Amino acid sequence: MIRLTGSELIELGKLYALANTPPSLYHALAKNSSVRRMRTEMGPAVLAADFNRFSARDKRSEVSLGLAYATLVALLTHPERVEVPRTVERLKWGRAFVELAKSSGLVTSTRVIDALQYRVQTTTSPASPLILHPRQD
Amino acid sequence: MRAVISLVAQGVIRDAQTNTISAFNILESLSAEGLPLFVPNIAYFVLWEREPNEPSIREATLNVRLEQTVLISVGARIDFQTFLRARSINQIAGLVLPSPGQLVFEMMVPDGPRATYTVTINAPAQVPPPRVEAH
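ok -> structure tokens follow
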């Protein structure tokens, strides 16, 4: 986990406390500078492990829940291919966040065409390439 | 499924960190100084959107034609993976335009939507020959 300052943690707690719907919290966190830092400085495996740790805490405060949701958003919007943690249901809005990430995600295919030699080269860059597990109901 | 954005620019790039797209020098027309006109780089961008119940992979064709002449025709798969939106960036290098006219870029899905964008290629301006006056 990257080092977050006290004010950054309080900011995450405030976002959680003030959010009234899953989309409002998801989009506020997706734009948050701490979440952006987590996304760029941490790999998906570390984020997933941290999310499991934060979401498993018995004693939950606004800050700890804000941190857990922030880690989940950083994971779901990570540029590398990630697996959605099975423990996502531990958070009340966890499944809703996965659906939001799915609907706001974008895949980019880049095709380079050499018109003179008629050669085509294609690459694909998934944005938040979720691997979704079937629900364990 | 539908095309939300369709445009041609000199360059279209994706920021790997923020996953945002930037297009620079969007082309509406090109004025040739001479023909044939050589276009070293040109990019055609399409943003596709599908409904959740529609298939995630669609086989499409990318065509570039000048009036009735097909310059490029290649297969272009649109793969949404698990998402509802997909971007296609088609970077074309070394396009040779032999004559003025309507340069049409299109991505077509058989029995499905079609994205299109037209760039007008203007003929070179007629410059009167220099007049030589005898003294």
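Confidence is low (pLDDT under 50) at residues 133-137 of chain A.
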